[in-house]
Design goal:
12-stranded mixed sheet, binds S-adenosylmethionine, binds iron/sulfur cluster
């Protein structure tokens, strides 16, 4: 079992398998995309499987595959299939934009994926185009239908942005009336990859909740799952629920159970740190599993208490060119 220097059990890995994406969400990356990682810099399928196997042996029980867009990488389904067979891994899941996902849903079901996070910032085609710079809403909605049809639990992620999708907050809550989905509203974070400094947020968790309460005054707090990053609510009589993720306000750090690995193999102890060491590079230089495990354990003994401390400890402040696609969300 992995326990950090603040007594938090670490049992969850978020693995970003690629920085590439078929959308260009303006809050994540510039219109021209990023300076994509070279093939050499990316972890190979074998390296990812090796590192995950080792970390599961150390106490990681849940792995989320993310990116970039996971399915922009050709061998992602192969990786998921191999991971689904790992002894000791209790939960395998993924976050996807849903553009290429619909035809893959039966296979996801077959390998035992029980829940998927699907990003959906708006239900309006024009606003989807403005936000993601691609006209792909129909494919995302098809993915949503396929997931529900196959009995896979769905969490819909919506980043809340002034001037972009505020008018979608209530329609997204309304979706939970019939659909058994959890709609999670996320505070916008400063990782848009375009070099613009982020000067704080207009829509924090308090304002998002107040906006929902104006239309749904009866909305009730429901229990949050262990390690949940969202504060969860339900409108009485609705099938689904509503979550609010204070990703910028960072109110969930006290129960943080997660570590991250970027597509080039950088191990991160916090969304807001610079990364502690490159585990892929260390393995490529010939480090044994024992050496890798020792380095991971040592890093876990030096975790920042919260995202604010991790941010302060960075040698340089938030790298303004950093994109959520290279962190994995
Ligand atoms: N491409 C996949 C997707 O969009 O679902 C997976 C990777 S994406 C980086 C993971 C999550 O990060 C998405 O739900 C996305 O909305 C969220 N995200 C990206 N940039 C963000 C930002 N600047 N602030 C808050 N959330 C962000
Ligand atoms: Fe792509 Fe996801 Fe970033 Fe949007 S949020 S650009 S879908 S990686």
């Amino acid at each position: 079992m992995l326990v950090d220097n603040h007594g938090r059990t670490i049992n969850y890995l978020r693995l970003a398998v690629t920085d590439k994406c078929n959308l260009r969400c303006f809050y994540c990356m510039p219109e021209d995309g990023l300076q994509w990682l070279s093939r050499e810099a990316l972890m190979t399928y074998e390296e990812m499987l090796h590192i995950c196997t080792m970390l599961v042996g150390m106490g990681i029980e849940k792995i989320r595959i993310t990116g970039g867009e996971p399915f922009a990488r050709k061998d992602t389904m192969q990786l998921l299939t191999a991971l689904s067979k790992l002894n000791g891994l209790r939960e395998l899941t993924l976050t996807t934009n849903g553009v290429l996902t619909a035809p893959l849903v039966p296979e996801l079901k077959k390998i035992g994926i029980r829940s998927v996070n699907l990003s959906l910032d708006t239900l309006d085609r024009q606003r989807f185009l403005t936000i993601t710079r691609r006209d792909e809403l129909d494919k995302v909605m098809d993915t949503l239908q396929q997931l529900l049809h196959h009995g896979i639990e769905v969490k819909l992620n919506a980043v809340v942005m002034e001037g972009k999708n505020i008018e979608d907050i209530i329609p997204l809550v309304a979706l939970t009336k019939e659909l058994p989905v959890s709609v999670r509203f996320i505070e916008e974070m400063p990782f848009n990859g375009d070099g613009n400094q982020h000067s704080g947020i207009n829509w924090n968790h308090v304002r998002i909740l107040q906006t929902i309460q104006e239309v749904y005054p009866g909305i009730q707090k429901i229990p949050d799952a262990l390690y949940s990053t969202s504060h969860n609510y339900q409108v009485p009589g609705h099938n689904g629920s509503v979550g609010i993720i204070a990703a910028y306000t960072r109110s969930f750090c006290g129960t943080c159970n997660r570590i991250r690995i970027t597509p080039e193999g950088m191990l991160k102890m916090c969304l807001y740190d610079n990364g502690v060491f490159n585990i892929k590079d260390m393995a490529r230089k010939g480090a044994s599993n024992d050496m890798l495990a020792e380095a991971v354990t040592a890093a876990i003994q030096h975790r920042a208490v919260d995202g604010w401390e991790a941010d302060r400890n960075r040698p340089e402040k938030i790298n303004i060119h950093e994109s959520m696609a290279t962190i994995g969300g």
